[in-house]
Design goal:
The protein has 557 residues and is α+β, with helices and mostly antiparallel strands. The longest helix is centred in the middle third of the chain and has 25 residues. The chain is globular and about 95 Å long. Bound molecules: adenosine-5'-diphosphate (ADP) and magnesium ion (MG). The site of magnesium ion (MG) has 4 residues, from loops.
């Protein structure tokens, strides 16, 4: 048995560094269960449309108000290793499908809570892991069975799905407007892959936010918003029928790599030198002019003299545009990004109905909009305060992700805990087909799934026992879309209530939560190396175990 210290012929043998902490067996498991369950406890009250928000204050005093599971956990700075694994669950769900982060943590917490009950009855964790894995596999089959295939071009339906993901957020009052924007944006950038399916790259949707106004002022821009101003006061601030050149080299005279010194003793020489520079810059601008461009968006700098010539030519220019924005501009306007001005021709130019510098609160931003069939668009989020726009941003992210999920995989289920209740019901019957103690684990898995409708009911202020019995009885009569309607505090058909979610989210929640719970269940030994710089004692010297006080269940033999 691996242990920190063992004895050989009466001599203690140190295997690990002094100060290392170890906890083993039931003790280690119990610690991990407790930490993981605590994390679930924290986010639990934020689940669903009636969930509460969390106010997170960081060390600098910055405040974040959110209801988003992934954000809550990210901001929390969790220390315990098992708790960290729960944070990972939320992160992985967020990356994969974007929504369902709170659900996955609540479910993983419930899985561990139920597992602990079995462990206390001396069921071996590996039996539970087997039972859970089998149950998860069956659960996926069940949810896939009831999923409804949809038409990805059905805009109204997509809006309902986007709206469901936003209805559990701070911005739910404005979700009708926002969901429309989100669906329009996602459909606009969706591209057909070779196999006929749709692919959405959300990088092509630029989300800019600015506190001020109200959420209702949030807009979809068929083009790109740049948080930069027009570079020179003499340039036009508004160009209709824009012909846009995207340049990723500097409109400046290149400085040499080496430091060089030019000695001039004649003032005339000096003038010649400056004239030459001037001529070079002018010829750059001439090249742009002759291509027919009336807007230049440059990734690098633009020299003062070049600015002067550009403004004389009536060209609107913006400098130091981010590379990623230049890329989006290419997709939105159809322009080709040019490296070398010598290559610039009219064919490389993109077009937009309007390029205009506008004041957004105190800043001046350039809007490139009215692009024809743009493959990149922008969403400009507005809202009463920085905290509101930040939370709106996170909610829009979730909604964009679920819309992407269903466009790419057009299968949906109802929400409100309906699929969870349905799977739990079916799993309980299926459990009897399982042999031995794994059956117990499958039953517990079903109980853990019930934590989703149960938590939704609790957060809505409904009586948990009455609600769950009504839900189970309706489910067992075959009403598979029965769930918790949090808006009206009733148990009803959630599909008819238009509370709709992507199948992909439910699948990911089941997978990630089960994986994390099983991983935590398998751990029976936690060895934490010490960071302390204690001087190493004499070899085999005692006293080095001082740091282990309070670590119960230590196996010192
Ligand atoms: P998550 O991070 O897991 O998405 P949310 O706070 O967004 O957490 O809550 C999602 C849960 O709320 C899902 O189970 C979803 O079906 C449910 N839900 C959303 N809108 C409603 C509604 N109007 N009535 C009942 N349940 C809803
Ligand atoms: Mg959600």
């Amino acid at each position: 048995m691996a242990s920190i210290q063992t004895t050989a012929g009466g001599m203690p043998v140190l295997i690990l560094k002094e100060g290392t902490k170890e906890s083993k067996g039931k003790e280690a498991q119990r610690n991990n269960f407790t930490a993981a369950k605590l994390i679930a406890e924290i986010v639990k009250t934020s689940l669903g449309p009636r969930g509460m928000d969390k106010m997170l204050v960081d060390t600098l005093g910055d405040v974040t108000i959110t209801n988003d599971g992934a954000t809550i956990l990210k901001e929390m700075d969790v220390q315990h290793p098992a708790a960290k694994m729960m944070v990972e669950v939320a992160k992985s769900v967020d990356n994969e499908v974007g929504d369902g982060t709170t659900s996955s943590v609540v479910f993983a917490g419930a899985l561990l809570e139920k597992a602990e009950e079995l462990v206390n009855k001396d069921v071996h964790p590996s039996v539970i892991v087997d039972g859970y894995s089998a149950a998860a596999e069956q659960a996926l089959k069940l949810v896939q069975k009831i999923a409804v295939k949809i038409d990805p071009t059905d805009k109204e339906l997509l809006i309902k799905i986007a709206k469901t993901s936003m209805d559990s957020k701070l911005v739910s009052d404005d979700s009708p407007i926002l969901s429309q924007i989100v669906v329009d944006a996602t459909r606009q950038v969706a591209e057909k892959a070779e196999d006929g399916t749709l692919k959405v790259d959300l990088d092509n949707i630029k989300v800019e936010k600015k506190a001020g106004g109200s959420i209702r002022d949030t807009k979809l821009i068929k083009g790109v918003v740049l948080d930069k101003e027009v570079v020179h006061a003499g340039m036009p601030k508004r160009v209709e029928g824009a012909k846009i050149a995207l340049v990723n080299s500097a409109l400046e005279i290149e400085k040499t790599e080496m430091s060089a010194e030019i000695r001039i003793n004649d003032p005339q020489q000096m003038q010649m030198f400056l004239d030459e520079e001037n001529k070079m810059l002018k010829s750059m601008v001439d090249k742009i002019k002759s291509s027919g461009a009336n807007v230049v968006l440059c990734q690098k700098g633009i020299d003062d003299i070049a600015q002067h010539y550009l403004s004389k030519a009536g060209i609107l220019a913006v400098r130091r545009v981010k590379e990623s924005d230049l890329f989006k501009l290419g997709k939105a306007t159809g322009a080709r990004i040019v490296n070398n001005l010598d290559d610039l021709t009219s064919k490389d130019l993109g077009s937009a109905e309007l390029v205009e510098e506008r004041k957004v609160e105190t800043d001046k931003w350039v809007f490139i909009e009215g692009c024809k069939n743009p493959k990149a668009v922008s969403i400009l989020i507005r809202g009463g305060s920085q905290r509101v726009v930040d939370e709106a941003d996170r909610s829009i992210h979730d909604a964009l992700m679920v819309t992407k999920d269903v466009l790419e995989k057009p299968l949906i289920v109802a929400g409100g805990g309906a699929p969870e209740a349905y799977i739990a019901n079916e799993l309980r019957q299926w459990a009897s087909s399982q042999e031995g103690r794994a059956q117990l684990a499958v039953m517990k898995f079903a109980d853990a799934l019930d934590s989703i409708p149960l938590t939704l009911a609790e957060n809505t202020g409904m009586d948990p026992i009455d609600t769950m019995t009504e839900l189970r009885s309706k489910q067992s009569k075959g009403a598979k879309w029965t769930g918790i309607d949090c808006r009206n505090a009733t148990v009803t058909d959630m599909y008819k209530q238009n509370v709709l979610e992507p199948l992909a989210v439910k699948e990911q929640v089941i997978k990630s939560a089960t994986e994390a719970a099983c991983m935590i269940l398998r751990i029976d030994d936690v060895i934490a190396s010490s960071k302390s710089k204690m001087p190493a004692g004499p070899p085999g010297g005692g006293g080095g175990m001082g740091g282990m006080g309070g670590m119960g269940g230590m196996d010192m033999e």
